[in-house]
Design a protein that fits this description.
Number of domains: 2
Order of helices and strands: HHHHH
Largest sheet: none
Oligomer: single chain
Strand content: under 5%
Number of helices: 5
Radius of gyration: 22 Å
Distance between the termini: 20 Å
Length: 116
Amino acid sequence: MKESLATFRKAVNESADLQEKLKGGTDLVELGKENGHDFSQEDVTAAFEELFSRALWWLFDFFWWLFDFFWWLGGLLVDFFVLSRSLGVAFWWLGGLLVAAAVAVAVRKFFLSKKK
C-alpha cells in the first residue's frame, strides 16, 4: 500500500469530520488531495485488492480449521465410540462440505474480482 494512502487512512480513522465527508459520498482521491495526501485511484484499488486477498485467505484458513476440527471429531467418534459410527461419518461429511464451500467462495470471489 502506498505510504500516503496509509497515512490518509490513519487520518480518516482519527477524524470524525473526514469520516462524515466519506460517508456523504466525497471522492476518496479528491478528499485525500485536499488534505495533503497524494495517491491515485489505482493506489486505492490496489490497496482494496490486497485487503480482499488477505481476507479471502483468512476465510479459507478458517474453513480449513473447521474441516480439521470436524474431521478429528468424526474420527474420534468412529474410533472410540463404535455406537456413534454414523455420527462420526456425518461429521466427516460436514467437514468435507465446509471445505467445498470455502473453495467455492474463494473461486467465485476471485473470478468476480477479475471481471471488474
